[in-house]
From TrEMBL:
GO biological process: DNA recombination; transposition
Cas12f1-like TNB domain location: 317-374
GO molecular function, one term: DNA binding
Name this polypeptide is given: Transposase
Domain called Probable transposase IS891/IS1136/IS1341: residue spans: 185-289
Length: 400
């Protein structure tokens, strides 16, 4: 099966900081976002029109249209052109990715969707500024258009930022996310390798018993409080066309607060586990598993609480930072192959069967442990058994 390798090295990282937004800067940021949202929606409309008449709608053409839009609308000219141009760049990248997935004939569930219209009540404010659109002076962030906000410097920036993203979370807090160039931080070599298999009962099962990641269950622990606040929201939900009450806004804020805490707990657990794995192993073979299909299964809630994608993301980033080698292994047949002899079962194992028994060599082991061993073999990190492992073809039959 195909595997891809990710090597560590220097790259870019984001450093996020909380912002203290004044009563003047807050409305200015919202107004700037309204202009960028209008530009985005115009790009979506132009793209759909161009697609209907089979015309090209690239960023160069949209830039020319932006010049005309700003000339014809005085309220659009009052804002800075930098975030508006970045909105066009973001739209073009999103559209290009969707067209590429269609060209490659990916399954519908795996395709990136075409850009859609952004509604005012469903889209969080997000503004992107390039280097010419902002500057740091006396600990404050000066944005193009005369907007000045105070940054809470919880840590120092390692280098001069190349761009910044201003956004507001579900609780109404403003943040600035700076993109900076970071150098690699290599760790001492250990000469060890590890295989990792993702799951639901255990988020990560590895070839090392001491590095398994059990299901943390952060969402399950907070489900009681979350359900209480959600019922409160349902009782206080305003009728269509009516203004939200103070009680409804408070309940919605409490729901957002619980969700944010769960996200941070999952991220913290993933980062600590990833740091421990990267510090102890030089080469890591990871199942390139995309759990999107689990959202439509009976395990959807538990799979979402396991946060497999977030954990995998943190592991890859941590490996790049510390110059470790990551091998992304294709997940096909990893639960059917034997990690000892390479034989493949004739049928798919049901999820209820948690023990793997090889019909050729007679090896008996945990199903997830066997899959983690297969990751090592497929990545070529198991020299003792690599020559005896068959990656493709019919199952090995026992000699008479």
């Amino acid at each position: 099966m195909a595997t891809s390798q990710v090597n560590g090295g220097a790259g870019y990282a984001r450093y996020a900081y909380r912002l203290r937004v004044s009563s003047t800067a807050g409305p200015a940021l919202i107004s700037e976002w309204d202009r960028c949202r209008w530009v985005w929606n115009q790009c979506v409309a132009q793209s759909r029109t161009a697609h209907a008449v089979r015309e090209e709608c690239g960023p160069a053409r949209l830039d020319k249209m932006l010049t005309g839009w700003r000339a014809g609308h005085e309220w659009l000219r009052t804002g800075s052109s930098v975030p508006q141009q970045q909105a066009i760049r973001d739209f073009s990248r999103s559209r290009a990715k969707a067209l590429k997935d269609i060209k490659n004939r990916l399954p519908l569930k795996q395709r990136a969707g075409m850009p859609r219209f952004k509604k005012k009540d469903r889209s969080g404010p997000t503004l992107n500024y390039t280097r010419r659109g902002f500057r740091l002076k006396d600990g404050r962030l000066h944005l193009a258009g005369g907007i000045v906000v105070t940054v809470v410097w919880s840590r120092d920036l390692p280098a001069e930022p190349s761009s910044v993203r201003i956004y507001r979370d579900s609780m109404g807090h403003w943040y600035a996310s700076f993109v900076v160039s970071t150098g690699a931080q290599p760790l001492s070599r250990t000469g060890r390798c590890i295989g990792i298999d993702w799951g639901v009962k255990e988020t990560a099962t590895t070839t090392s018993d001491t590095h398994d990641l059990p299901h943390p269950g952060h969402g399950e622990k907070a489900s009681g409080r979350l359900a209480c606040y959600q019922r409160m929201m349902a009782r206080r939900k305003p009728k269509r066309g009516h203004v939200m009450s103070k009680g409804y806004r408070q309940a919605r804020r409490q729901v957002a607060k619980v969700h944010k805490k769960i996200v941070r707990q999952r991220q913290d657990t993933a980062r600590k586990w990833a740091k421990r794995v990267v510090a102890d192993f030089d080469s890591i073979a990871v199942e390139d598993f995309r759990p999107k299909f689990l959202a439509q299964s009976t395990m959807a809630r538990k799979a979402a609480d396991a946060a497999i994608s977030a954990t995998k993301y943190e592991l890859v980033n941590m490996a790049r930072k510390h110059q470790r080698t990551i091998h992304l292994v294709h997940p096909a047949y990893t639960t059917m192959d034997c990690g000892c002899c390479g034989a493949r079962t004739k049928h798919a194992l049901p999820l209820s069967e948690r023990t793997y028994t090889c019909t050729v060599c007679g090896a008996v082991s945990s199903r997830d442990k066997n899959s983690a061993r297969v990751m090592l073999v497929r990545a070529g990190l198991d020299p003792a058994g690599a020559d005896r492992v068959r990656l493709e073809g019919p199952p090995v039959r026992q000699a008479a």
